């Protein structure tokens, strides 16, 4: 009787364990990089949204200063709320009484986790009469800021962007 000398092929248990440990090390080193990348993308969205809102507020003020929007004597010329930037304001100089629109929609603060809040409520609003250090809402919207208490990658709180 002849013994067959077949060579068995495959991985040993030790080889599999070493491969799994190496894979776990690679994945655990990639996770922080992915978290930073995701945070950086949200920060870029926050910058873009703040720029859009502030640009629309400034355009509204310029339209008031240019006489395209009626202003009462006691008003500052800034919009009373963010929704008016989307709804539009009637142009008294236009014979067809078309509205001037400043935004298509109000962007959302990407760092506000509560999905129940409306886009407008996701922003902090500062009136013309309030200070920068202690922003407060008032009769108009002079500036917007993030309500997030987090700090950015640049070590500056999002509220101060």
TrEMBL record:
Gene3D superfamilies in the cross-refs: Glycoprotein, Type 4 Pilin
Spans annotated as Disordered: 111-135
Keyword annotations of the record: Methylation
SUPFAM superfamilies: Pili subunits (SSF54523)
Record-given protein name: Type II secretion system protein
Source organism of this protein record: Methylobacillus methanolivorans
């Amino acid at each position: 009787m002849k013994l067959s000398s077949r060579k068995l092929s495959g991985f040993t248990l030790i080889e599999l364990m070493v491969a799994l440990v190496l894979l776990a090390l690679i994945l655990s080193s990639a996770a922080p990089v992915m978290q930073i990348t995701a945070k950086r993308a949200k920060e870029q969205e926050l910058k873009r949204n703040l720029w859009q809102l502030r640009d629309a507020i400034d355009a509204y003020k310029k339209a008031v200063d240019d006489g395209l929007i009626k202003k009462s004597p006691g008003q500052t010329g800034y919009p009373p709320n963010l929704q008016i930037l989307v709804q539009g304001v009637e142009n008294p100089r236009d014979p067809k009484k078309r509205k001037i629109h400043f935004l298509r929609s109000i962007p959302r603060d990407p760092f506000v986790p509560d999905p129940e809040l409306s886009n407008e409520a996701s922003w902090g609003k500062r009136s013309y009469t309030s200070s920068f250090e202690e922003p407060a809402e008032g009769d108009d919207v002079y500036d917007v800021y993030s309500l997030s208490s987090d700090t950015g990658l640049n070590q500056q709180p999002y509220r101060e962007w």
